[in-house]
Amino acid sequence: MIPIHHYKVNKQKPMANKSSNSNLTNAKNAKNDEFYTQYHDIEKEITAYLEYNPEVFRGKTILLPCDDPEWSNFTKFFAQNFERLGLKKLISTSYAVESKKYKSYYQPSLFEVNDPQFDEYKTKKNGKIFILTGDKSGDGKVDVNDLEWHYLKGDGDFNSNEIKKLRDEADIIITNPPFSMFRDFLAWIIKADKQFVIIGNMNAITYKEVFPLIKGDKMWLGNGFHAGNAYFSTTLAKEYAAGVYDPETGLVKFRNVCWFTNLDHGRRHQPLPLMTMDDNLKYSKHKELKGKESYDQYDNYNAIEVPFTDAIPSDYEGAMGVPISFLDKYSPEQFEIIGYEKSYHLRTKIYPNQIQIDKNGKRSNVTKLNDGAAIKVFTQPDDMTYYLVDDEYFVQSYKRIFIKHRKKTT
User: Fold this and answer.
1) Rounded CA gap, 48 and 24, in Å?
2) Spacing of C-alpha 331 from chain mean position
């Protein structure tokens, strides 16, 4: 039997958000890409595609690269559901231990050691490949017991010719790729024009390599994690602050993590319920809007600032700057994506001379105001970073996507 290990997951207790927004950055800096996705998160995500199209995986070859098949819940899920999904073939590959960025104590599993093909050299230098095509055990069903494995010729790097051949053979690529290699990994998939479901940082939306795919409706957000929070197992629990790592569950909590995909699902086509601009200004639950006379207008883009997705006015026909989290509610039938804060061709003004003043009063000559959407304010901001341009005060919005309501056709 192939020992697909899984982690004990207890009921989550509320945890503080301290440092959770910077976890992915810290992981990259620490070269820690060892995060393991929970089984129920995989099941929930895949179910969303099946509900929209029950035949989406039928007859398909699925590749799970950047995986660790002996520990992977991805491998376990697709092996256990091989027949139900109607898969043609399942391929799962791993990185060699010595090729990983983070080096730690390694001991091969008893499953590998007791196998006749075990090799003390290859277990560290070579990746592994697990393949499932049918009932090999003869027990009348297809599951993890039917997985066959051997060592790869190389270390399992997705850029190797060995793994590229597997990519080209596959119909759909599904995995949680190394966070620090997300851009390269996505480009690797797109180059081969494959369908995919992968996990990444939501901030990747504004990468220059990623945003054109979003805007061109070639990639979108998947069904998502519960309440927008993702919990992963990790080998480096001590790297995380209390409140981020829960010792009772053995899980690390991440915000701003999402699924990226080009497989369709039903939630993507659900329109967002909205109020009119006047009603938002009168009744919004957000103190930043309620009672204001109007929405803020950007000084360097012909668009209004909408700081919350649920505050998008239903009756505004112009361009609007919305949080990147909007994409979790984006319906292509309802909205058109026209750019983001670094779509410089949409910019109406450049600030040649600017002084940045941080909340401690420190002054710096910068050009940062040109890299985002700027809002002119008429009083000196208190306790926040702002910009001084020709004796006028400006603040810069957070990362924004520019959208418009899609015109209804009759």
Assistant:
1) 26
2) 18
Alpha-carbon gap, residue 94 to 87, rounded angstroms: 21
Q: How far apart are CA 57 and CA 84, in angstroms?
A: 10
Question: How much is the pTM?
Answer: 0.86
Within 8 A by CB and 6+ apart from 278, the residues are none
Contacts of 188 (CB under 8 A, 6+ apart): 158, 159, 164, 167
Whether residue 354 contacts residue 367, with contact meaning beta carbons closer than 8 Å, is answered with yes
Count of residues in the chain: 410
Reduce the DSSP state of residue 372 to 3 states and report it: coil
List residues bridging with 394 in a β-sheet: 376, 387
pLDDT in tens, the chain (410 residues): 444 433 333 333 333 344 444 554 554 444 455 678 999 999 999 999 999 999 999 999 999 998 777 778 999 999 999 999 999 999 999 988 776 654 555 667 667 777 778 778 788 889 999 999 999 999 999 999 999 999 999 999 999 999 999 999 999 999 999 888 899 999 999 999 999 999 999 999 999 999 999 999 999 999 999 877 888 887 666 666 555 778 778 888 888 899 999 999 999 999 999 999 999 999 999 999 999 999 999 999 999 999 999 999 999 999 999 999 999 999 999 999 999 988 999 999 999 989 999 988 999 998 899 999 999 999 888 889 999 999 999 999 999 999 999 987 65
The DSSP bridge partners found for residue 243 are none
User: End-to-end distance of the chain based on CA atoms, in angstroms?
Assistant: 60
Return the biggest CA–CA distance within the chain.
80
- In the three-class reduction of DSSP (H, G, I as helix; E, B as strand; rest coil), residue 220 is classed as strand
Q: Which of 82, 3, 23 is nearest to 251 (CA)?
A: 23
Question: Would you state the structure tokens that stand for residue 289, as one six-digit string?
Answer: 């809007």
152-180 in b/e burial notation, b at 16+ Cβ within 10 A? beebbbbeeebbbebbeebebbbbbbbbb
- Which string of DSSP letters, residue by residue, matches 35-58? EEE-HHHHHHHHHHHHHH-TTTTT
The two structure tokens encoding residue 22: 């910077």
